[in-house]
Write a structure and sequence with these properties.
Length: about 350
């Protein structure tokens, strides 16, 4: 079977269903005002690609990079004290002051964006401050210091003194306390590596390997306070194309996943008609059979639809047999197959 483009798949599907493209076009137009042609068929072909990915259990391996993320609310505070040797106007001296860690509610922002908000709030608390807060993406630490030649004697970061403020010291900096230095360097912030983005084509997880160590699925409640667990990553969970690790990793190691994936959908406007189908070459006819079956259902030809759907499921069977070390018993051929009907 030669490779098939989307245009060829659409053409074959309409031939199998004995329907012209004019009958399979909607009244809508694209951004340039061109009427869609065969967009209904393209929709069914695209659905066929997606369904084959799910039922055939297409899987592949990929590597994911753990990147720290930060959350914050405007009532999350830490108390900061800055002692300076300079008494000149405009120095950065700050008596123990409660400072919010974010200027506005933030969800999953990067370390540099978090550092910018901390610096903005800290300098606002000083009044005419010139303090800097930076994030090191190699060491995963924040550093608090002065923008210019430093006159600092010590910096203290402690829990807030007001009970109505939520203590964000450990969540943000991983530690508290005083450093008699011109800079204050944080530890690894709690839970900042809890959530990791999965690839955009992710459909379902099969295996997760962290630093040559196979992880196990766990109930989601384990990930509510993962900092209370041991120090080595053992478990994972999946929510909305996000990978959660527990305990949270405190350094960057190789994270390898094998997952079921969803191929690129067919564009309805025809702009992607020259693209080769993203399924394995030997299964390029599967979306054709699926689309033809859906069209035949629309034209009230259930018997003909059943025949082409049987061809579609034969493609699924063959693919899964190949993927199962040639084990034909994994997904046996179905005799006298009929598409299940569901009364709505």
């Amino acid at each position: 079977m030669p490779e098939m483009t989307a245009a060829l798949q659409v053409n074959y599907a309409e031939r199998l269903s004995r329907t012209s493209s004019n009958a399979l076009s909607s009244a809508s137009t694209d951004a340039s005002g061109n009427a869609y042609v065969s967009d209904v068929t393209r929709q069914y072909v695209s659905m066929g690609v997606e369904e084959f990915a799910k039922e055939g259990r297409l899987s592949k391996q990929n590597f994911v990079t753990v990147t720290p993320k930060f959350w914050g609310r405007t009532n999350w505070y830490t108390q900061i004290t800055i002692e300076s040797s300079s008494l000149a106007s405009g120095d950065n001296t700050l008596t123990a002051t409660n400072v919010p860690v974010v200027s506005s509610d933030s969800n999953g922002i990067g370390g540099s964006a978090m550092a910018l908000q901390i610096a903005t709030n800290l300098n606002a608390a000083i009044g005419t401050g010139s303090m800097s807060v930076s994030w090191d993406d190699d060491t995963w630490q924040f550093t608090i210091g002065e923008d210019t030649a430093s006159n600092l004697v010590s910096i203290s970061v402690d829990p807030p003194s007001v009970d109505n403020y939520i203590d964000a010291t450990l969540k943000t900096f991983g530690k508290g306390g005083t450093e008699a230095s011109t800079e204050w360097v944080s530890n690894f912030p709690e839970d900042c590596t809890l959530e990791t983005d999965l690839p955009s084509d992710f459909l379902e997880m099969e295996h997760v390997d962290y630093d040559d160590h196979i992880l196990y699925q766990a109930p989601f409640e384990l990930f509510m306070s993962p900092e209370t667990q041991s120090s080595w990553v053992d478990h994972y969970a999946i929510r909305d194309k996000k990978l959660y690790l527990a305990p949270v990793p405190s350094d960057r190691r190789m994270l390898k996943i094998r997952y079921r994936w969803n191929p690129t959908p067919v564009t309805l406007t025809g702009s992607g008609d020259t693209a080769t189908c993203s399924l394995p070459t030997e299964n390029h006819m599967a979306p054709v059979y699926y689309a033809a079956g859906m069209i035949l259902r629309e034209t009230f030809e259930p018997d003909e639809a059943d025949k082409v759907f049987a061809l579609y499921y034969d493609q699924v069977r063959k693919y899964r047999t190949r993927q199962a070390n040639q084990n034909t018993k994994m997904f046996p051929r179905q005799v006298n197959f009929h598409v299940p009907r569901v009364d709505v």
